[in-house]
Predict the structure.
Amino acid sequence: MPTAREALLNAAMTALGGLPWSAVRMVDVASAAGVSRQTLYNEFGSKEGLARALVRREADAYLYGVERALQDRSEGRSEDRLDDRPQDRSDDGSDAIDRLVSVAEWTVGEAAERPLLRALLTGCWGDRLPAPRPAPARSRAPAGTSAQRRADAGAPAPGELVAAVGERSRAALGHDEAEGACELAVRLALSYVIAPGTQDLGALLRHALGVSATSPTAEGR
């Protein structure tokens, strides 16, 4: 069963699916969540606070999905890697590219279905979506409400999200070069989010990452 906070965020997201943010009423969000309006204000402080939390949750959900996409490709090979046989470096490179392609394709698919995520990734918010500003320092949530405190910092910029994805790719793939390769993958994915291309994204990305991996600079490392 979701907490009151999650129920309120879910209700706000549902309302946003049919109304512009300016027309979403706090009393209706509270009613849909099955809690009092006072509970809503206790959790978020204001409609602006609710907007910040909604956008922050969308960013966190995206980064969690990226982590899943980076991990899924490796799970099927886990048994093969338990033995002591030497690993073929080309296989490792191919697996890394497959996982980065998964991240890119998943990003494009999710952005097409989730307007808030699309806005976060592109910086283009439009009139129907909340585009909350950071809360003034004096009105930040108390120290005990860490989720809201993170939300009060405001929505991450597209570049911050790209950097966060790069950090996760380096952790998942186990080498520093992965961060740059992942940035290439995500930025190419963002170009498809903004203006879908006619060429298959996965094929284009595999070509770009393959060329990058065999460039003179890469070979000289």
